[in-house]
Amino acid sequence: MQQRVGIARAFATDADILLMDEAFSALDPLIRGEMQDLLMQLQHDYQKTVIFITHDLNEAMLLGDRIAMMRAGAIVQAGTTEEILENPADDYVRAFVQGVDRSRVLTASSVMEAPIAKILRNRGPAVALHEMRVHQATGLLVVDEGGILQGIAFDGDMVRAIKEGRNRLDGIIDTDVSSVTPDTPLNECLIPAAESRVPLAVVEDGHLLGVIPRATLLKALGTEHSGHTGGFQSVAAPAVGAQAAAQTGDDAIDTDARGDERSALDTLDTLDPAAHASASHADADGNEVRP
């Protein structure tokens, strides 16, 4: 209750930038998760820039739109969560993010590939079988002329359609297609990918944007890796006495190990001005991590 009141008071000030220092560190996991969800909802509703100091890198990556890793008071890497995980700047950053739960951080859009095994619905079953041979596939995603996903054409159905003398795919494709949206976390892609007989379709407003082959999904999960319009940015940096901060808004700000607000403002311009949030972080050795 105390944390909820504190958040309410902070947003009630109508300040453009809010600084929250270890706001949820003393809470049990259940309440902490609820407060994180509440903070993200309030930020979305009120479009404020929030700098969230935390020693939990998973929390920083959950809340932050961008991350800045710092060591000994210097930024060693700044970028989105995916950029930090997929392209760590050095061995220190690589080791620092090694324990992050990638399945909850990465999304479908970050690993999807161009849909190669697909066909227009106005083609015939013979053409579909030819495409399956070319791509060594047993099924093709079927789209219309506008790129809207229609269903899946399977090899067995195509063979039967040819024997029946049919020359169009209409009426012989399977319309029960497993799909996810671009912002679906990878941990929520596992079951649909396992159930799908073709690479998992990534769809937005009906349009086929890409696919996620099972091998790509497993590799991604197993690989180490100022107008304040709102949003969160994560920043992490190892250094003595380090902290982590997450910011919401168009600008990114970081603070030093003592939560120095002036230092945070000075670092604002270092991060992408279009970013919505930043986070700084401290590791177990006291190294500073911040935007």
Could you characterize the architecture of this molecule?
With 291 residues, the chain is α/β, with parallel strands linked by helices. It has two domains: 163 residues, Rossmann fold; 113 residues, CBS-domain. It is built from twelve helices and 14 strands. It has a four-stranded mixed sheet, covered by helices on one side. A three-stranded mixed sheet has the order 5-6-7. The chain has a three-stranded mixed sheet with strand order 8-9-10. Strand 11 and strand 12 form a beta hairpin. Helix 1 runs parallel beside helix 2 and helix 8 packs antiparallel against helix 9. It starts with a helix and ends with a strand. About 20% of the residues have low confidence.
Q: Rg to the nearest angstrom?
A: 23 Å
**Strand order in the sheet with the most strands:** 1-2-12-11
Specify the biggest β-sheet. 4 strands, mixed
What would the principal axes of the Cα set say about the shape? Answer: elongated
Secondary-structure element series: HEHEHEEHHHHEHEEHEHEEHEEHEE
Which structural category do the helix and sheet elements fall into? alpha/beta
Topology of this structure?
Blueprint: H1 2-12, E1 17-21, H2 29-46, E2 49-54, H3 57-63, E3 66-71, E4 74-80, H4 81-86, H5 91-96, H6 102-105, H7 108-111, E5 118-120, H8 125-135, E6 139-143, E7 149-154, H9 155-163, E8 179-180, H10 190-195, E9 200-204, E10 207-212, H11 214-222, E11 233-235, E12 244-247, H12 261-267, E13 281-282, E14 288-289
Parallel strand pairs: 1-2, 5-6, 8-9
Antiparallel strand pairs: 2-12, 3-4, 6-7, 9-10, 11-12, 13-14
List keywords for this structure.
2 domains; 12 helices; 291 residues; alpha/beta; 3-stranded mixed beta sheet; CBS-domain; Rossmann fold; 4-stranded mixed beta sheet
